[in-house]
Amino acid sequence: MASLSPKELTFGAAPSRARRVLRAGDTILSTVRTYLKAVANFPEAPDGLVASTGFAVLRPIGRLHPRYAYWAALSEPFIENVVAHSEGVSYPAINPSVLGSLHMPMPPRLDQERIANFLDEQTARIDALIAEKERLERVLKESIWDEVTRAVTLGLSRTGMRQTGIDWCPEVPSHWDVLLLRRLFQQTEYGISDSLGPEGPIAVLRMGNLRDGRVEMTDLKYVDEAPTELLLRSGDVLYNRTNSLAQVGKVGVVRELPNCPVTFASYLVRLVPNDRVIPDYLAYLLNCPDVLAIARSLALPAIGQANLNPNRYGYMRVPCPPVEEQRAIVEHLDSRSKAIQGLVDHVAKHIDHLREYRSSLISAAVTGQLQL
Question: Can you give the pTM of this predicted structure?
Answer without folding.
Answer: 0.78
